[in-house]
Amino acid sequence: MAQVRRRKRSKQVSVHAAKALIYFGLALGVAAVIAFLLTTDDNAPMSLPGSSVKDPTDFTQAAQATRARFAALYGGAKSANDVVANAIIRYSDKELEHTAMRMLEARAKGRPFVMSFGGYSVTTGRGNLFEQSFPIVMEGLLSGPLLLLGIQLEVRNAGQGGVSSMPYGWCIRNFLGSDADVVSWDFRFNEGSDSASMEAFLRHSMTMPRSPKFILMAKRSPTRKQVLRQYVSEGYIADSIVVNNAFPPESQFMKLDEETRPPGFQNFEEYGAPPGSPGQDSYIPTKKWHEMMAWFLTIHMLDAADLAFEMIAKNMGNEFPQHTGLALPAPLNDHQASTLHRESSMLFGHPIDESGRGDWNLKEMTCSTTFGGTFEGIKLKDLVVGGLKDGIEDVWQNNDGLQGAWRLGFGSEVVRDEHTVYTQLGFQDEKVSFHGLPFSGALRLWIPWGRNDGFSSRNRRLGERPTNQRQIMEYPHASSYFTQLIVCQFYETGDADQCDLTTDASFVVGGVKATSVAHVEVMGAQWKKKCLCVNVDIPQDAYVSTFAEGGPLYDGPFEPNDVGLNLDISVTNPNLTLLNSPCSISHIIWQDAPG
Known about the structure:
By secondary structure, the chain is an alpha+beta fold. 28% of the residues lie in helices and 17% in strands.
């Protein structure tokens, strides 16, 4: 039922990656490699034309040329190898082999090998151009060698400035894509030493169709590393790694005078965007840092590609590991802790055995968001039934803009102006949300039930159902279709007097007012120590409706008999104004009842 939306890459990024895909196939001799190293831009895509493994020397020489460029940038072969060894933490001897099998599976099925990176402003590349962010630079470096193996690489930078890891763990398919072979999140700056959010993010990634390789970007984070280490040691995941993304890099070369450093360490303080561009703060990594991270990942993935090449040469790698239906371990974090208990099933799942021992499973979440930069999923605007004015507007300009209806837009002039500049620098993210005040009335939405098989297959076991007076037919209880409902807002600042959805708003779920609305207190769902999300209880007497009976104003990917849940959100605090921020809605996440 999910409507797939592929966002357009910037023209600059497309050209950057296309160079590698068009040119990367001619085998280079040693002399050509030397000539190439002397004439090429340090981090430009390699110009080696071709597209298949017609000559075994094509890939091997391309890999050698790539490693020679890396060595030239970072102090010679030994020094460069040491840099990667210190930056990449592996927890399994089979890690590269398993990643190679992922590559070969993509090759055998004729689909792209997809690597998706999520995170904060660091990942998205603030202070620089979007095309200079490490995921995009890596795509240019790695695309060519993989193409010589018959593997098309697709890299996504889904970073969002000013966000936390949740609700993105719940919305992982929206922002990273359900077709990802590799996913990553950067925990270097925010969320302290909390590992509960990272573990939840990891577990949700494990439920994705390809149970993707997980790359943890973190400088230290011993508690998060321990989670990853134990999952690998117990055999639940095979090829996860940690990348030390310290800024400035922890290298002896950084202690040298500028002119005596290897090229990759020179001009490390310079940003790629024009001086004065937003995001050029001392703690935000520079252009050379992004290049270094791209090289770390390129060389590591190239090691996996070497194994893939050997398997192709030996006619191996024709049987691929199972990705779906995999069990999860019991969470290492205390899922019964007071701050996690209410939303534990949405973070960690349920034990398969009622005793709580043994394997667990985690039911897929469904997410809809107002944010831009998504790869799939239904946009939240497409679920609106009423109470929303058309168009994106600067809601901060005057109260009249919110009179009688909610608005979709930026919540402040600062965020709007920064977004304008970021767009000019090539960035894809867009943090717009619904905004409302008491006189805006109710924002009405229709939340689709994910399976959409109507009532017929479930009626016999639903038991007694309340009557909906608007139609003759009887509707089943909402709790038979939905088990969890979470609503999130977007804070542009951390002011104490901003809207609190637990006290300043009301929620009517399936025609019945929710009496229990509680903060989601996991650290990954906070921003500047304020909770972003609330867990809205689904009342016992709440009912579902069909799309034909009460669905959204916009057509969307729905059929008349599809089942959904009406949700009305109203601001109740009369003291809220534009000055101290209206209430905002940016994400809605829900979980279907077991079928």
